[in-house]
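Dear Dr. H.,

I hope your travels went smoothly. While you were away I took the liberty of generating a structure for the chain from your last submission, since the lab meeting agenda had it listed for discussion. I wanted you to have the full record in hand beforehand rather than looking at slides cold. The sequence, exactly as received, is reproduced here:
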Amino acid sequence: MFRIILFTIFIYSAYKWSDWRNWKLYYPSILFFIICSLLYNLIYYNYPLWKFEPLPIIEKLLPNNTLISIAVSFTIFPCTTLLYLSHLPKGKKELIYMLIWVLFYTLIELISIPCQAISYHNGWNLGYSIIFNIITFSILKLHHERPLVAWGFVFIAIIVISTYFKLPIDGMK
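The corresponding predicted structure, in token form, is as follows:
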């Protein structure tokens, strides 16, 4: 039930409050977010840092991490990108706005843990997720303004994360 509620909230919110007139402005960043998510799932398939766990009610539809990740990548992440970028303020309010999104994503994860909707692996924990969320929303904004620079940061992040968590290159899928 948790995921159904989450998907519904994101889809309804994006439908109701996103800047649909200018969706083409956000489309490259939507694709960027989706590709980054799929890239994580490909690179860290054998050594995940976190996994989405199947939940009752929809476990026949989304029975494993791969299918859940695909569903999240093509629903929640595009909705997030549309909502986040279409309301991004300028100046000093921008940092507060980003931190609100980081807190919102962290709250979702805090709810996901006792619901057993997410599990941590290979040394990952909620603290790393908070740092990851800060980086994610910073890079999402950066991609909207300077896409090539954002891609550079993504590849640096992959190297840093793989090195820090000692994820073996030969174990990659």
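Two observations you may find useful: The longest helix spans residues 23-43. The two ends are 31 Å apart (CA to CA).

With kind regards,
E. W.
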